């Protein structure tokens, strides 16, 4: 069930990014919008790689996880020693890459929201003054 939620979220965020890029092209937006979009996208890529491949956090006093939002490796404290539970190599790379992609897509949501709000307010102002 969790994988279906992840796929739906990935699809929804990808659609937002796709439609934002399409709206940028259609409305001939200024350079500032493009700069902010690409800056957030590059920051999202860096953050996504870090979170997907390197982020380690303590979920509970006896459980540590690596990878966010889907953990790739888990450690459990058993008899005073951390025992690792590692997924298979190909699956681990796939999950880490999916984590990085999801965080990258999330990073451009602020510029998308700001663009659509400004476009809405601009159109509303044109209707009121006309």
- Major sheet: size, sense and barrel closure? 4 strands, antiparallel
Contiguous runs where pLDDT drops below 50 for at least 5 residues: none
User: Would you list the SSEs in sequence order as H and E?
Assistant: HHEEEEHH
What percentage of residues falls in helices of 4 or more residues?
Answer: 55-70%
Mean pLDDT: 89
Detail the topology: elements first, then pairings:
Layout: H1 2-26, H2 31-53, E1 56-60, E2 63-66, E3 73-78, E4 81-86, H3 89-107, H4 109-129
Antiparallel strand pairs: 1-2, 2-3, 3-4
Helix pairs in contact: 1-3, 1-4, 2-3
Notes on the structure:
This protein has 130 residues and is of the alpha+beta class. The protein has helices at residues 2-26, 31-53, 89-107, 109-129, and strands at 56-60, 63-66, 73-78, 81-86. It has one domain (2-129). It has a four-stranded antiparallel β-sheet. A hairpin with a 2-residue loop joins strand 3 and strand 4 (81-86). The longest helix is centred in the N-terminal third of the chain and has 25 residues, at 2-26. The chain is elongated, with a radius of gyration of 20 Å.
């Amino acid at each position: 069930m969790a994988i279906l939620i992840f796929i739906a979220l990935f699809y929804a965020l990808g659609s937002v990014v796709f439609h934002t890029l399409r709206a940028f092209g259609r409305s001939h937006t200024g350079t500032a919008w493009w700069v902010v979009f690409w800056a957030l996208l590059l920051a999202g890529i860096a953050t996504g790689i870090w979170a997907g491949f390197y982020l380690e956090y303590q979920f509970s006093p006896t459980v540590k996880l690596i990878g966010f939002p889907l953990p790739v490796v888990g450690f459990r404290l058993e008899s005073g020693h951390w025992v690792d539970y590692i997924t298979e190599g190909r699956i681990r790379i796939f999950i880490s890459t999916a984590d990085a992609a999801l965080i990258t897509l999330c990073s451009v949501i602020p510029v998308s929201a700001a663009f659509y709000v400004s476009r809405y307010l601009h159109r509303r102002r044109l209707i009121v003054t006309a």
